[in-house]
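Page 37, top half.
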Amino acid sequence: MNLAFRKISHFISASTTTSRQDHAPYFWLILLGCFLFKYTKVNPHPGELLMVLVTLASFVGLFAYSLRVDDWRLFACIIAATLLGVLWAPYNLGAAVFVILGVGMCSRIASHRSAYVALYIVCAILLMADAVFQLPPDFLLPTLLFCAPVGMVSIMVEKNIRMNEKLFRKQEEVENLARIAERERISRDIHDVLGHTLSVIALKADLARKLIKTDLLACASELSDIEQSARDTLGEVRSTVRNSRANSVELELRVAKKALNAAEVNMISLIEQCTIPLPLENVIALSLREAVTNIIRHANASTCKITLSSDSQQIKLVIADDGLAGKRDFLIRKGSGLTGMTERIQALQGSLNIRHENGLTIEILLPIKGAS
């Protein structure tokens, strides 16, 4: 009998390491063979055999039910399994398996503290039953000996499993948020790359169409610019997908001047010489690109003034035009470009302000602290 209890103590803690929806816990019902061990040597009379069959069927149903419930119903299953073992103790020492399997159910209680309380109550029931009914020592001592360690190991194993599952869910959530953020990044960057370049290509194509009958050399130059812009855009799209694209404010200013000239917009730039951290420079360059793209597409402006300045705390970028936004009935609709610009700036704890001042003025403030 002690050998059987040692086998039970070796295997029982693993009975709670799977989820309630899994069929693996039913494997441990094989331990009910300990209850039938007596009848390999003794032939039961018909009444006892009937009670054995009823008991086994009842316990299997109780065990299955315990896998689907929690709170007080699970606690009731634990008590019922314990009482079943106590009632059979005078007739079959193998009934200890009911108590030990019941102890294994304690680990399924959600609260760690409540699980230990249930374990203590099982031990208390055994001691009280012994005081009242004088349980056989060969039943009581091995059962108490194995109940405490089996119960505690089961509870700790289940606690670790729950923590691992919680950690795994957190990791999945983080990975999902990272995927969403990456898709949004690619969407914003591709919008900035293609929106600006396609606007410039459209302008130059229109200009080339006008020049084809009057100035073939100028037309060829515009077509060459269109070709180069398309090649540059292809490289930028590839870099965007690989997240390896770096944007230079100086380069973006040159591109902006070229694009604005093609749109017949005079560009005035007041750029202060300053050291800009790379993350800020990337956002400033992309914001400049988006603002210039909107001026070319929608502003119908004649002048664009770009001012970049800094102090010890922040960098300030102002893009102002004298376009249609100065009119009272002009409505600014915040599309994906301005939305992406706002998201980038807010990610760096910066701010974006849009004002109507004889046109449209976009003011961007980015804190330097923590950006490097």
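Page 37, bottom half:
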Amino acid sequence: MTTQDSATPLLAIAPKRGAASGTTLAALGVASFSLSFPATAWSLTGFGPWTTTGLRGVLAGALAALYLLAVGARLPQRQHRPALLVVSGGCVLGFPLLTTLALRTSSTAHSAVVIGVLPLATAVAAALRTGRRPSRAFWTAALAGAAAVLAFTLLQSHGRPSVADLYLFVGLLVCAAGYAEGGRLSRDLPGAQVIAWAVLVALPVMLLTSAFGLATEPLRVGPKALVGLAYVAAVSQFGGFVLWYRGMAAIGVPRASQLQLGQPLLTLVWSVLLLGEELPAAAPVTAVVVLVCIAVTQRART
């Protein structure tokens, strides 16, 4: 057997191992994100929405700075900076603030189902960014999933979308853009550096947001609020993204985004176990419909 012959099986196995590793990393990121809404709800028991969002970003910024110093990371190149601004605006500023504002009046179960269309939005954003044209089957499933989410929100709000629903829909759009751009950027930069630089870019705004929140919102700090804030800062805003973007870089944005299909269902479980919420009757059904629709989009030709 020649050296070339013996190397062939290894070359065949390596991509599979890489894909499995990437899938595991992305799945761990999804599991981390599934606790974000319950943790935010805990944080809101002691901090206002602006305070929660600001302190979340400030604490995550401190972790990001320590990481970048520890690895001796260089400043991002000029061509990477626009993408980092999109990640920062969508995943560090926009989505956390908008979903925190929504959770003041919306249950985590309801919010999880509305955000269930995020994987679809991420896949669409990635398709638009790369110029690929999805097939008719893709768009049919996409519209069906969006219709299911819209029907659920209208049912729960008695025919009129609430302000919380508007926050959630805008939040998922900006987050989808941040996911797609961050996943693309993670092919050039380590995933940990992508989110670390994005968090640091947002740090000045987060400091101002914290100052505004602390000056205008009441504080009722307790153990539950502190645990919730620590989780959304250390995991939801930083650690989970490290896993998520590394997984995206390994298996691609479309495949990784579909692992988020399980996130709404996981969040529904956490909302019952940790918050004692009662699930709306339509929530599990809607979540399953959305999952099926998004799964079809990934099987469709693009």
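Margin note: The two ends are 41 Å apart (CA to CA).
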